[in-house]
Specification:
Rossmann fold; N-(1-d-carboxylethyl)-l-norvaline Dehydrogenase, domain 2; globular; 12 strands; 317 residues; eight-stranded mixed beta sheet; four-stranded mixed beta sheet
Length: 317
């Protein structure tokens, strides 16, 4: 059995922590200090398409210094992308010789941020494409699963057998998982998906299916995708699809239907007055474009609108 730390017990972190603890591992949770009271009984619950699961974690803390004497095998980082850098600093003291770090956030740049503070060879990326929502602190519902959690090292610096150990650990807990040697390409598939749907769905307060049924929003989503392909080409970033048209066909035919009844997470973030992950999604596309002298106008426009909505929420509180 392994010792595992899950940083962030939101929609994704609650699922990982519950399943891994239920599988018999020692699991510690890390939450923000102002959340600690909500987790005082240490009991987590998950329901939805993967059935009913419940587990009591071994410890839930707000400061990883409480775990510094533990010999941790795996740290799963399940916070929002804008917290990646801060969390990477905070977990340095619990990363030992055998510790592996698995980043599960959305968007571009999480590996780059984490590797400023943590050994590159220890950092794995996980593409999470199951959907879950928080009903209350420590209680999440899994609503949809489009594919396995795909896990790999972006530069293949970690021995394949070590990566496979992490994959098997996740898979044997009951969460579908598999290994990817080209994890960056897989992550870019999700970045394309999120960039096309999240900001537009949040701004218009529409479900994914509604966006795909309206010719005007289809035009905008296609433009977002085309701009991302152009940015990636200019930055010599390899994608799984040869052309935007290939991805667009896959997007509407295979990706939208299973999630057509869902609102984007960005919609809920704005509704609750929370910060969104726009900087790691469309905002990251804009930054990559600017690096090579190209302005992806549609992505820039959506980024600007979301940031304006964020600041409007903040100023009204």
């Amino acid at each position: 059995m392994r010792k595992i730390v899950v940083v962030g017990l939101g929609a994704v972190g609650t699922v990982f922590a519950t399943f891994l603890k239920e599988a018999g591992h020692t699991v510690y949770g890390v939450v923000k200090e102002n959340q600690i009271e909500s987790f005082k009984d240490k009991i987590l619950k998950v329901d939805g398409i993967w059935g009913l699961h419940q587990a009591k974690l071994d410890k839930i803390v707000f400061d990883t210094s409480y775990l510094k004497d533990e010999d941790i095998d795996l740290v799963i980082v399940a916070v929002k992308s804008y917290d990646t850098e801060e969390v990477s600093k905070s977990i340095r003291d619990i990363v030992k010789d055998k510790t592996i770090i698995l980043l599960t956030q959305n968007g571009y740049g999480n590996y780059e941020k984490a590797s400023k503070f943590l050994p590159k060879e220890k950092i794995l990326l996980g593409r999470v494409i199951f959907g879950s929502k928080v009903n209350s602190p420590g209680y999440a519902t899994v609503t949809v699963n489009a594919d396995d959690v795909r896990i790999g090292h972006p530069e293949n610096l970690l021995q394949e057998c070590k990566v496979l150990e992490t994959v098997c650990l996740i898979k044997h807990s009951g969460i579908p998982a598999s290994y990817s040697k080209d994890i960056y390409k897989v992550l870019w598939d999700k970045i394309l998906y999120n960039c096309a749907l999240n900001p537009l769905g949040a701004i218009l307060q529409k479900k994914y299916g509604e966006l795909a049924e309206n010719p005007d929003t289809v035009t905008i989503m296609n433009q977002i995708i085309e701009e991302i392909f152009h940015v990636c080409k200019l930055n010599k970033i390899e994608l799984n699809y040869k052309s935007p048209q290939d991805y667009i066909e896959h997007f509407y035919k295979n990706l939208i239907p299973p999630t057509k009844a869902h609102y984007p997470s960005m919609y809920y973030d704005l509704k609750l007055g929370k910060k969104t992950e726009i900087d790691a999604l469309n905002g990251a596309i804009v930054d990559l474009g600017k690096k090579v002298g190209y302005i992806p106008v549609v992505n820039l426009t959506l980024t600007t609108i979301i940031k304006n909505l964020e600041s409007s929420k903040e100023s009204s509180e």
